[in-house]
Each structure stands twice: as C-alpha cells, then as structure tokens.
Amino acid sequence: MGPEHPIGGPTLHNLAELYQEQGKYTEAELLYQRTCLYIEQQLGLEHSHVAYPLNNLADSLSKLGKYTEAESFYLRALHIREQALGSENPELAQTMHDLAQLREAQGSSEEASTWYTAALAVREKALGAHHPKTNGDTHASHRPPSRNSTK
Q1: Distance CA 109, CA 3 (A)
Q2: Contact at 8 Å (CB) between 47 and 84?
Q3: Mean pLDDT within 91-96
C-alpha cells in the first residue's frame, strides 16, 4: 500500500489521534503532517477535509509548546472551515475555542476571552443556547455576563 492508496489518509489520521491521546505529541505531529499532505494531494489545499488534521496538528504543536507554529495551523484551519463551511458552522467554533486555549497557555487572557466569546457565539447560533456543546463548555467563566446579570 503506497502513499496514493485511498485508505492511507484515514489510517494515518487515526494513528496520529491514537498517539495524541497517548501523549506522544511528536509522533502525532509527524503523522498529522503526513495526513495533511495526503489530503491536500488528493482533494486540494483548501478542501474542508484538510482542516481537521490541521487543527489536530496545531493541538499537538501546542502541547509541545510550539505556539507560533500551532497558531499558524489553527488560523489556516479556521480560514478553510470558514470558506468551506460558512461562518456559522460549529466546526469553526472548535478552532476558535482551540485558539482561545492557545492564547490562554501563552498568558494572553484578554485575547483568549475574545476567542472564547467568538466560539460561544457561533455555537449558540448554530446549535442553540441549551445544546450540550454550548452549555457544557468547560470555559464558561469566559462567557460574557448576560445583560440581565446583577453582577
């Protein structure tokens, strides 16, 4: 089975996810890079399927402390998702959320809050205010206070 085989991309991606779950971020990084290259060759540089491994590659890089590289991949995934899926797609919100976590890891709380707020707005619009991915956000503290709040 060579690099052009149709099962190559998904298999690489699954193995990369396994490594990432095991905390083997360097190994995951290399496999996500190969996955991106494979999908780009098969479907094109801007295809929506490229965004998922790009986002995961950025996650691995972020875990390795390679924040500048991670940011560039998150921003590319964000651009692809917005162009391919529209500005109200929940997948866009995931990348925004990941960018917020990156900024938080870098100590930029204000920028993190901006990204968290943007992600929440997309999720609320796409999924509704009571959806588990909107309500169950682990970063609810970054949610702006409601206008009816007494704080």
Answers
A1: 42
A2: yes
A3: 94
